[in-house]
């Protein structure tokens, strides 16, 4: 099975390289970022540093690792933090993260790469996030008896581990000393295949967004835009959410729009702006002290602001739900915003939780989108959703200290 798995990894790598040669931007970054990785790491452990290695898939998983990184650094500033990414979309945004001593791409998961990587880095502790399972790395971690944990884990019954043929995949889970998972279903699934070294701790992103919400932030342009108006914030939007926003801006619903597209691309920003018939500006066309109370639509053409802007919103529509999966709902919920999202939320525990308590709403088309906005425009319904959102935060924050307590006790 290892030969088949490793062959599949090589085939995947071949196609990524082919896409890079064809000019695909993400593929180019994926390939170039892994070039000369051994030389990049060879001097890493010459001083016998105490290294904790975090591996994340992309930006969302990094945000789950971040609260733990911050607390480990606070506990021991000399601890060397290595962060590896699989995806360019995460690496390119966080490659200069100050609390990480080194940020890299994860070398392709072949047996040779995994062994070489671990022999060079020699981490004393490894932390994988959510559902990153690279089986050649896990095999080497187990062979070298390195302390290893999964945080914010989510297991689903359709994964290989829980299938009749899943024995080879299942045995690699023995590399983990402990599983910190987000829900009861994950605990039950792990127990069903013999793993009792697990605990439900929740999602560390709640601790992160709670910290962000307490940071001081104020600008006249955002305050004037939202003053005496209902504001819909559309975060990390893709084309489908953009289309809904454009139609919504022409509806009879008196709500302003702040929209932050997922893709940072200047020509696409200008194109999107031109599709709105109501008054619309790019953030880059405004100044921090500008009065925007007459503006109907504001497009955020800058990264790093969205998590702070949700404080100016009444309702949030989270992008990605008509594509590969929704983006971060918690950044909005932390401010008591009811959240809407498309139908592809199946891999996100917080979406299930928010739907169940009445703080989240799945919309599949324009009609459901409008109907949900009108439902929330009723003051009683809106206040109820706000109360549920705030209760969710209060009831589920605190994953980070729970994990830290376990790590330092061990």
Question: Can you tell me about this structure?
Answer:
With 410 residues, the protein is of the alpha/beta class. The protein folds into 2 domains: 2-200, Rossmann fold (3-Layer(aba) Sandwich), CATH 3.40.50; 217-393, Glycogen Phosphorylase B (Rossmann fold), CATH 3.40.50.2000. It is built from 19 helices and 14 strands. It has helices spanning 2-21, 25-33, 37-41, 59-75, 88-94, 111-121, 135-143, 167-171, 184-192, 205-213, 220-226, 239-249, 266-275, 306-309, 330-333, 349-357, 366-377, 379-396, 399-409; strands at 51-56, 80-85, 102-105, 125-129, 147-153, 178-181, 198-200, 230-237, 255-261, 280-282, 297-299, 315-318, 339-341, 360-362. The protein has a 7-stranded parallel sheet with strand order 3-2-1-4-5-6-7, with helices on both faces. A 7-stranded parallel sheet has the order 10-11-9-8-12-13-14. Helix 1 (2-21) packs across helix 2 (25-33), helix 4 (59-75) crosses helix 19 and helix 6 (111-121) packs across helix 7. It starts with a helix and ends with a helix. 40% of the residues are buried.
Strand order of the largest sheet: 3-2-1-4-5-6-7
**Which architecture of the largest domain does the CATH hierarchy give at level 2?**
3-Layer(aba) Sandwich
CATH-defined superfamily of the largest domain: 3-Deoxy-D-manno-octulosonic-acid transferase, N-terminal domain
Poorly predicted regions? none
CATH domain fold name of the largest domain: Rossmann fold
Number of helices: 19
Number of domains: 2
The gross shape turns out to be: globular
Average of per-residue pLDDT values? 94
| Distance, first to last CA | 34 Å
Which structural class fits the helix and strand makeup? alpha/beta
Largest sheet: 7 strands, parallel
What is the CATH C-level name of the largest domain? Answer: Alpha Beta
Question: Proportion of β residues?
Answer: 15-25%
């Amino acid at each position: 099975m290892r030969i088949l798995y490793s062959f599949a990894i090589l085939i995947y790598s071949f196609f990524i390289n082919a896409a890079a040669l064809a000019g695909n931007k993400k593929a180019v970054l994926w390939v170039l970022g892994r070039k000369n990785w051994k030389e990049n790491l060879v001097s890493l452990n010459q001083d016998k540093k105490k290294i904790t290695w975090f591996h994340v898939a992309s930006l969302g998983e990094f945000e789950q690792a971040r609260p733990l990184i911050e607390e480990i650094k606070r506990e021991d500033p000399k601890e060397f933090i290595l962060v590896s990414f699989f995806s360019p979309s995460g690496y390119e945004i966080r490659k200069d993260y100050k609390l990480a001593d080194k940020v890299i791409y994860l070398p392709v998961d072949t047996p040779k790469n995994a062994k070489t990587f671990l022999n060079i880095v020699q981490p004393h502790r490894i932390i994988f996030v959510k559902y990153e399972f690279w089986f050649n790395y896990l095999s080497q971690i187990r062979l070298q008896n390195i302390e290893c944990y999964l945080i914010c884990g989510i297991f689903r019954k359709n994964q290989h581990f829980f299938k009749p043929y899943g024995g080879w995949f299942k045995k690699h889970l023995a590399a983990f000393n402990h599983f910190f998972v987000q829900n009861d279903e994950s605990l039950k699934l792990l127990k069903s295949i013999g793993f009792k070294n697990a605990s439900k701790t929740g999602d560390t992103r709640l601790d992160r967004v709670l910290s962000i919400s307490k940071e001081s932030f104020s600008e006249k342009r955002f305050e004037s835009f939202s003053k005496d108006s209902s504001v819909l914030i559309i975060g990390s939007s893709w084309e489908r959410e953009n289309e809904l926003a454009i139609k919504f801006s022409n509806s009879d619903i008196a709500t302003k729009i702040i929209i932050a597209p997922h893709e940072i691309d200047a020509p696409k920003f200008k194109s999107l702006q031109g599709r709105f018939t109501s008054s619309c500006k790019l953030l880059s066309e405004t100044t921090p002290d500008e009065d925007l109370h007459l503006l109907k639509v504001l497009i955020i053409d800058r990264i790093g602001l969205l998590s702070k802007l949700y404080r100016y919103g009444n309702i949030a529509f989270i992008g990605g739900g008509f594509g590969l999966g929704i983006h971060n709902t918690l950044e909005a919920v932390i401010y008591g915003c009811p959240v809407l999202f498309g139908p592809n939320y199946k891999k996100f525990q917080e979406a299930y939780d928010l739907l169940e308590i009445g703080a989240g709403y799945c919309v599949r088309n324009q009609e459901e989108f409008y109907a949900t906005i009108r439902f929330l425009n009723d003051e009683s319904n809106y206040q109820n959703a706000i109360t549920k959102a705030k209760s969710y935060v209060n009831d589920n924050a605190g994953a980070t200290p729970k994990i830290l307590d376990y790590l330092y006790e061990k």
